[in-house]
Design goal:
425 residues; two-stranded antiparallel ribbon; alpha/beta; single chain; GI Alpha 1, domain 2-like; 44% helix; TIM Barrel
């Protein structure tokens, strides 16, 4: 039995247990997550999305095998047991090529599935919910299920050991990256239990039609909307007093739990409560790169006091120029006046700024920032102007592993956002 299957079994046996699912390709976020898993001696699921990582490189420039090599190297460099790290692929389907007809998009998706499983990803989210060119924005459950089964067959064919694969399905998923600006404040309704049940039935039928019934026990998760979300400037907090109606949808499938997306920025008590409601996989991404940006901007302000002679450009100004020069990564997500757009570009919950960190100008600016801060640690009162006590204390213990006090603060700030996912119950 795989680790994920064990977690599902415990969750369905009424244990309050779930696994943290870190969806990011940002190296410092990955290091923070891996170090935290190692310190706590708890498993972590590290995931890449089809937009981030695919057979063409995605927006990170990494193919699936490159992503696994990066994470493995980080774990080795930080002396963390690689057995704690499990790899997942998220939103794997035709989504990246949805502007093309299905006859073009699906073959691309098939080749991507092969690349993922051959690289060593074992937890696969089959997401064929979005329509391709000439189709509705969201296809019906039957079409989505048939395409998911088609891609599962590819995974089974090319995985080095198909028995190690676990699948997550689901058509009612929050949009990757969170809600759009125009959806802020509208509230977020949980998935209807009948809809969830219908999704399971359609997928079961589609798998049987492709002679994949033997794979069904390895369907471990269904992505549904629990009733929480984040938009650029607004959070929909989970209502912990709402009745648990969704779990009834799982009554005929004891090997399946729910997977929650867009759990970023929720109150700490929400995560064990979701686990009690059969959400055994809790995904987080933008909240971690949001914390990364918080720490970098704080250090950029501190540089004025610690290295006033530094001639390097302010990090914020550098990234602002990148975002204005190539607005396609944020302009469909943000709305408002010029002042509001400026604030959202840099401080939004949606954190679209994360798409610009890999660019060379941004990387050079970050390197210049850390170079300028190669000084003795500043006095505690100055640190407390920008970081809270828990982050400062954690950073002290991370200084050697991180390679300096400034980088340690970045790692500690990210871990502060991730720690609630490693709850003890």
């Amino acid at each position: 039995m795989s680790l994920l299957s064990e977690i599902i079994a415990k969750n369905r046996a009424s244990h309050t247990v779930a696994i943290a699912s870190v969806c990011s390709a940002q190296p410092d976020v990955l290091q923070a997550a891996i170090l935290l898993a190692g310190r706590l001696n708890k498993p972590v699921l590290i995931k890449a999305t089809s937009n981030q990582v695919n057979q063409f490189g995605g927006y990170t420039g990494m193919k699936p095998i490159d992503f696994i090599a990066l994470v493995t190297r980080i774990a080795s460099d930080n002396r963390v047991d690689p057995a704690l790290i499990h790899f997942g692929g998220d939103h794997l389907g035709p989504q990246v090529w949805r502007t093309e007809p299905a006859k073009i998009a699906m073959p691309h998706a098939s080749k991507m599935m092969r690349a993922y499983v051959e690289a060593g990803f074992t937890k696969i989210h089959l997401d064929c919910s979005e329509g391709c060119a000439g189709e509705p924005a969201q296809v019906d459950d039957t079409t989505s299920a048939e395409r998911s089964a088609e891609l599962a067959a590819i995974c089974e064919q090319y995985a080095p050991d198909p028995e190690k694969l676990s699948y997550v399905i689901g058509t009612e998923v929050p949009p990757p990256g969170g809600a759009r600006a125009e959806e802020a404040g509208q509230g977020t309704l949980p998935t209807n239990a009948d809809h969830a049940r219908h999704t399971l039935e359609c997928h079961s039928d589609a798998f049987a039609a492709r002679r994949l019934s033997h794979v069904w026990p390895r369907i471990i998760g269904l992505v549904v909307q629990p009733g929480l979300e984040f938009a650029p400037t607004h959070l929909d907090h989970f209502d912990m007093t709402a009745p648990n109606l969704l779990s009834t949808a799982l009554s005929n499938d004891p090997h399946i739990c729910f997977e929650a997306h867009s759990t970023d920025y929720q109150r700490n008590a929400v995560y064990p409560e979701l686990a009690r409601r059969n959400f055994a996989v809790l995904k987080v991404g933008p909240a971690l790169t949001f914390a990364y940006r918080q720490a970098l901007y704080a250090l950029d302000h501190m540089r004025e006091h610690l290295a006033p002679a530094s001639k390097a450009s302010r990090l914020l100004a550098t990234v602002e120029s990148l975002m204005l020069a190539e607005p396609s990564k944020w302009n469909k997500h943000y709305a408002g006046s010029e002042t509001e757009l400026y604030q959202q570009r840099h401080f939004s919950y949606a954190d679209r700024i994360r798409y610009y960190w890999p660019e060379q100008k941004a990387q050079s600016a970050i390197e210049a920032l850390f170079d300028a801060l190669e000084t003795p640690p500043p006095m505690r009162p100055l640190l407390e102007q920008y970081f809270d006590e828990a982050v400062i204390n954690t950073a002290v213990s991370l200084k050697d592993l991180a390679g300096g006090w400034a980088k340690a603060l970045v790692i500690a700030q990210i871990q502060r956002a991730l720690m609630p996912y490693f709850f003890e119950k």
